[in-house]
Amino acid sequence: MPRKTKTVPARQHYTKDLKERVIYQNFILGKQPTAISIDLDMPLRVVQRCITTWKEIGEVCHDRKYKGRAPLLSTQHTKTKPNFDSLCLALIKHSPDIYLDEIQDQLYNCHEVDASLATISRTLHRLAITSKKVRPLASQQSSAGTLCVISSWIGDEPADRIVCADESAVNILTSYRHNGWSLKDLRSRKRCCFIRGTR
């Protein structure tokens, strides 16, 4: 028959005010640690440790040793030094299909910002920018020119004829990247040149 695993109690945090009550009941009221543990519904070990800490340093708890390092990336936007979010947004706006390591290189070479790939990825996720399939748009395409040609074709045909217009085919088997960055719930678009040379 398998033995039951021993349940480990969850670590509970006690406020500074509650620990000061321990000191008050011990030194002012003269209660024993066991009675204090019952009155305040605290483990006996926590009461004993609180009393020991008070005797050593005169406080109920030690100062935190590890408060975390200061952020290396600036969170304030100035004219001379833009913040990290605006730099990432500008790079993605310029090249929607850029890779994370390319963003890292651009930040270091142009702005001397040394950021890890995880930091860049978390920043993009916080800004609601996701990676999705990019939609290539022909850079030679002109909406005004297309409407002008279609209207001229339709105008030359007789009224009893049905006219259908279709765009010319393009070669999608190119070396362009298939994934790009854009805001959430929006498509990722990039204008590409599908032909070489001049028409």
Write the layout of secondary structure elements.
Elements: H1 16-28, H2 33-40, H3 44-57, H4 84-94, H5 100-111, H6 117-126, E1 129-138, H7 143-156, E2 179-183, E3 188-192
Parallel strand pairs: 1-3
Antiparallel strand pairs: 1-2
Helix pairs in contact: 1-3, 2-3
Structure write-up:
This protein has helices at 16-28, 33-40, 44-57, 84-94, 100-111, 117-126, 143-156, and strands spanning 129-138, 179-183, 188-192. The longest helix is centred in the first third of the chain and has 14 residues, at 44-57. The termini are far apart. It is mainly α and 199 residues long. The protein is elongated. A 3-stranded mixed beta sheet has the order 2-1-3. It folds into 2 domains: 16-57; 74-152 and 177-199, Orthogonal Bundle (Arc Repressor Mutant, subunit A). It contains 7 helices and 3 strands, in the order H-H-H-H-H-H-E-H-E-E.
Characteristic terms for this protein:
Transposase, 3-stranded mixed sheet, 3 strands, mainly alpha, 199 residues, 2 domains
